[in-house]
Amino acid sequence: MSVAVEISAYLPYLRRFARALIGSADGGDAYVVATLEIIVAEPDSFPRTLDSRSALYQLFLRLWTSTSATLPFRRSFVPRGPAERNLQQLAPLPRQAFLLRAMENFSLEETAAILRMTEVEVNALLRQANAEIASQVATDVLIIEDEPIIALDIEGLVQDLGHHVLGIATTQIEAISIARANRPGLVLADIQLADGSSGLNAVNDILRDTDMPVVFITAFPERLLTGQKPEPAFLITKPFEPDAVKAVISQALFFDQRARRKVA
Description:
Layout: H1 3-7, H2 11-22, H3 25-41, H4 52-64, H5 82-85, H6 87-90, H7 93-102, H8 108-115, H9 119-134, E1 140-144, H10 148-160, E2 164-169, H11 172-182, E3 186-189, H12 199-209, E4 214-218, E5 235-237, H13 242-263
Parallel strand pairs: 1-2, 1-3, 3-4, 4-5
Helix pairs in contact: 2-3, 3-4, 4-8, 7-8, 7-9, 7-13, 8-9, 11-12
């Protein structure tokens, strides 16, 4: 079986991981493309000592964290901003380990293999990541979700992280109304709402008034990963694990708070 066939099923998930890690849809996708170009140009670079999924993520992270640019990739690819250029500073190892475990559901053993570390070292990174997340500045959160049980689960997770829930909107009109009245610092949005309206349209309307990080939580990720613009940087698939929500919220706020500090 060719490498292309082996890894094809994992590419949408690598795109999701890359976007959350880098904080940018365009930047994440560019690094995924560069990783695939490496595989095509240098087939021996694909780590055959690992299973295909772990090997793909390891190769991606080797490229992403390579400060010496020793891995071959297309000369036309140039990181397009501080989030892509200052790699180690923006997503140090603790966040890489946490996203691999919490969002991608790699085992501790697999995470250690991907990062080329011991399991003891990975556990130390995970403890550090949890401490960093716990120290994040609290913000006001708008939840756009029409399923009551899921909405309550998300609300509980958000509150456990120390954030304040402004409200739970079940329709596009309600979401826009709450956002305009309260100016949330983060939006968590489903894309298919109870009255047939769209959480995606609601978010687009909200972002016309003000800028804020958005995390989409949906059972239909394929609707947001079509290759057509715009696409989200932060995406969680239902059914979700609590740690996955925690990880992606943390990343969204991490990049937003860095951006605001630079502006200030």
